[in-house]
Design a protein that fits this description.
Layout (H helix, E strand, L loop, with lengths): L1 E4 L1 H9 L6 H8 L4 E5 H12 L9 H7 L3 E3 L3 H9 L7 H13 L2 E4 L11 E3 L1
Parallel strand pairs: 1-2, 1-4, 2-3, 4-5
Helix pairs in contact: 5-6
Length: about 120
């Protein structure tokens, strides 16, 4: 399985894995699965930290690399797809993650009920 971590899912996996459902932890621990983290999530965390809206105890990029998580860059197709999504969700980061998951045929691991309204493969985190 090829997975894309929603931002909150990545933070939980790297810092508080007990917050994840047992099934989510199992797929993340399976070495046969590819786990991706979007550059958009790194950007989102940085913005929220700078605004004082989020405190992260682990350095996200370093922890992701150490865990073997693959970097997913944002490209033009991702941006175009995000701009074409219906207005179900106002969060631009989540819209971009949905676009990336559909473009790259990844399963988005999330607990965001608004994200699951899109035509994108998801799995509950």
């Amino acid at each position: 399985m090829r997975l894309l971590l929603d931002t909150h899912t990545a933070l939980w996996w790297l810092g508080e894995p007990e917050r994840l459902r047992i099934e989510a932890r199992a797929v993340l621990e399976d070495p046969e699965n590819e786990v991706h983290l979007s550059a958009a999530s790194v950007w989102e965390v940085g913005i929220k930290q700078a605004a004082g809206r989020l405190r992260v105890d682990v350095p996200l990029v370093g922890a992701a690399r150490a865990a073997g998580i693959l970097e997913l860059v944002v490209d033009w197709e991702h941006a175009q797809r995000a701009s074409e999504l219906p207005p179900l969700h106002r969060d631009p980061f989540d819209r971009l993650l949905v676009a990336q998951a559909t473009a790259e045929e990844l399963v988005l691991l999330t607990r965001d009920s608004l994200v699951t309204q899109y035509d994108v493969a998801t799995m509950p985190a």
